[in-house]
Write a structure and sequence with these properties.
Blueprint: H1 10-17, H2 31-43, H3 46-59, H4 63-87, H5 94-101, H6 104-130
Helix pairs in contact: 5-6
Length: 131
Amino acid sequence: MAKLFITKSLDAILGEAEETGEHTLKRSLGALNLVTLGIGAIIGTGIFRINRVVASGYAGPGVVFTFIIAAICCVFAGLCYAEFAAMIPVAGSAYTYGYATLGELFAWIIGWDLVLEYAFGAATVCSGWSG
């Protein structure tokens, strides 16, 4: 049970990142690619479909404030990922950072949460466009 909470050292992570070969992953996305990927993931279909329903039936002009609050939350999420990337400068996601700081169990949970997030995000977009 104690093995589930073992963290991976930064030296081990950096050593794995320097490996070469057929079965390794390398960083290939630049800043522009990551920004556009993030914008595409954030916007989704809700900005096209849900706005008119919420603005006309519930929020009225207050919907502007909800967009401002959502933008502030997105900035903080981006700052969290920037801190992760500065702390552990290797190709990876929240899984790598979780493995280095929280342990293998939390990294596994974070990894599967990311898979579920992308699966449900795609399903939500499909549902929104079909409506």
